[in-house]
Design goal:
Elements: E1 2-4, E2 7-9, E3 11-14, E4 17-21, E5 25-28, E6 31-38, E7 41-46, E8 49-52, H1 55-73
Antiparallel strand pairs: 1-2, 2-5, 3-4, 5-6, 6-7, 7-8
């Protein structure tokens, strides 16, 4: 599990190190949610809730995912 601020991603672990990562999740007051897009609008969706995603949440999730992929590519 890798985290930064309120972001989280699970990463496959193998004997050779790390594998692929799952989707980046966003911890909210309602619980863990994931970004989904509908008709050009981003939402944070989890079990029993859906909230409009802010531009900051979208940017942070994308940056975290990019940084994590870059890190895993070096291992």
């Amino acid at each position: 599990m890798f985290t930064r601020d309120n972001l989280i991603a699970l990463v496959e672990r193998s004997g050779a190190g790390y594998g692929t990562s799952g989707s980046t999740g966003i911890m909210t007051e309602q619980g863990l949610g994931y970004l989904v897009w509908r008709e050009g609008q981003a939402f944070v969706t989890g079990k029993g809730f859906e909230l409009p995603a802010s531009d900051e949440q979208v940017a942070a999730a994308r940056k975290f995912s990019e940084d994590l992929q870059a890190l895993l590519a070096t291992r």
